Structure formats: C-alpha cells, structure tokens
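Worked Example 4.2. Consider the chain below.
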Amino acid sequence: MSRNKGPRDDRWYLNLMAPNTKGPKFAWLDPTSIYINGEAFHDLLDDLVTDLDGVKCDVVGGLDAMGFVLGAALATRLGVGFLPIRKAGKLCVDTDKVSFSNYSGRTQDMEMRTPAFAPGTKVLLADQWVETGGTMDGAIRLVERQGGRVVALAAVAIEENPVTDAYRARFRCVSGVVQGSRWQGECNAQVLSSFGSYRPEMVFPAIR
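Applying the procedure from the previous section yields the following structure tokens:
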C-alpha cells in the first residue's frame, strides 16, 4: 500500500485494522495488522510522536502484551528506555502487583519490577487500545506507587467513555484515532466502515 498522508482526521493506516472473526470473547478488532505493514507502522509512530511534542518522559511503560510493541517502538523513537508492565507471574525479580478488570470484565493481576525507577521519574504509558480503561488504571497505580509521574498515555485508539474522559482530564492522551474524527465515532461504536473492504493481503509486507 502506498503512503496516503491526508488531513489530521484521515489517518490512512487505520483502514488496515482487521475485524474480529472469532466471536465475543475476543477484542472487536485487530490493530496488529498496522504493525505488519512497514509504511503503516511508521506513519502511526510519526503521528504519535508529533502529537507528543512537548511531552518529556524518562521511560516508556508498555502494557502486556500488545502494548509492548507500540511502547518499545515509541521508546526507540523518543530515545528513552522501555519498561514492560507484565501480567502476574512472569517476572523473576521482586515485583509490586495490582488487580484490575480488563475489557472483557475479567479480573486479572498486573506486575511491575520493584524498584523500577527513582521517585519523580516521568513515565509515558503505551497500550494498543484503551477501551474500558481497566488495564491502564492498573499500570497507572503501579507507576504512582513507586513515586513515578505519568505524563502521557499513548495508544492506537482511546475510546470515549467516562473512564477515558477522566484520563484525558488528567494526562496528555494521544492516539492514532483523533478525537472529533469519523474514526473516533466508529471506534466508539466498535464498527469501522473500512471493515467492508478489508482484505488480509492489504497489509502484507513489501517483498524486497
């Protein structure tokens, strides 16, 4: 797919997101198809970094699991380190743990190494998608319990609801989906108009 830079409310790479084909226990779409396509992934990162202009962070925290992809890429672009915030039971070092309710309503535990940083460290938190905000809430609590300061949240999309409205009031929030755009309304409704024309081969990496 060729690059198609449009106005701020027309981010072409969002058309590459794949609809759910496996039923209600899975997320309603798959943004990882953006990551597969080199131009799409880099344009997403370009937009996020542009929208983070003026935000100073010391480390990017990525939420297990798909937040690792976006978070590590952003950390590389921003020239800072990357902190994995993991599902419980994965780390072999001392950890702090919190419980949270995920998008499916299930209660899970999340851990972060302790100590991970000095008090006052500025942390940018990244996840693939912020829907109900439960996973992000767990990450925010872990960072703040170690004396860190969350300076921004980044995602492919942040849906609009009372929880995410509260995040926007507290933090700089950036996403591939821009508030006020048609994409935001479609994400809130959890049905993208692009699903009708989606084909897996649209996202295939270029063969060199």
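Residues 38-51 form the longest helix (14 residues). The chain is about 30% helix and 25% strand. Compare this with Example 4.1 before moving on.
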